[in-house]
Amino acid sequence: MTNSSAVALIVIALALAGCASSVRYTQRAVTSGATPLQQQVLDAAAELVGTPYCRGGSTQRCYDCSGYVQAVFAAVGVLLPRSTLQQSYAGIAISRENLSAGDLVFFQFSGTKGRSHVGIYAGDGTIYHASESRGVVRERLWETYLERAIIQFRRVLTDSR
């Protein structure tokens, strides 16, 4: 094996190992049993995957987490406040056991006070959110850094289960 072949194999192995640490989803979320409004939210959320992150962003050019959530719900006619803190008072509090597609998930990451991040539960253990480092993504929620930071779930859709 030549040195260039060995280097190529190492690069491929490292790339594959990096992919395994955080599963990202590219297909649209389709949750069995979702109401039409829940599916509209998931479709609107998926439309924006890949949009860059920017602090204070609330346009299709770039979003922060609460700007993204507000834009997704506005696209289906549900008006939400702008900030993460304000959104954390919208709708009704629910338990993890009652979590359904379209529900909001709030987080507190270390070094922050209160609710510092929000995302949209997509069903099947995944969430849509605007990540500071990766922009708008859909990724696993359970057994990840995200699950450890969850502090609240809220339902804002009136036709949810």
Would you write up a description of this structure?
- The strands form 2 sheets. Strands 3-8-4-5-6-7 form a 6-stranded antiparallel β-sheet.
- It has a single domain (24-155), classed as endopeptidase domain like (from Nostoc punctiforme) (endopeptidase fold (from Nostoc punctiforme), Alpha-Beta Complex), CATH 3.90.1720.
- 30% of the residues are buried.
- Helix 2 crosses helix 3.
- The protein is built from 5 helices and 8 strands, in the order ααββααβββββαβ.
- 31% of the residues lie in helices and 22% in strands.
- The chain has 161 residues and is of the alpha+beta class.
- The termini are far apart.
- Residues 6-22 have low confidence and may be disordered.
- The protein has helices spanning 3-20, 36-47, 65-75, 84-87, 145-149; strands at 58-59, 62-63, 92-94, 104-107, 117-123, 126-131, 135-140, 150-155.
Indicate the percent of residues in helices.
25-40%
The overall pLDDT, averaged over residues, is: 86
Number of domains: 1
CATH H-level superfamily title? endopeptidase domain like (from Nostoc punctiforme)
Q: Strand-residue fraction?
A: 15-25%
What attributes characterize this protein structure?
161 residues, alpha+beta, endopeptidase fold (from Nostoc punctiforme), 6-stranded antiparallel β-sheet, two-stranded antiparallel ribbon, 5 helices, 31% helix, 22% strand
Write the layout of secondary structure elements.
Blueprint lengths: L2 H18 L15 H12 L10 E2 L2 E2 L1 H11 L8 H4 L4 E3 L9 E4 L9 E7 L2 E6 L3 E6 L4 H5 E6 L6
Antiparallel strand pairs: 1-2, 3-8, 4-5, 4-8, 5-6, 6-7
Helix pairs in contact: 2-3
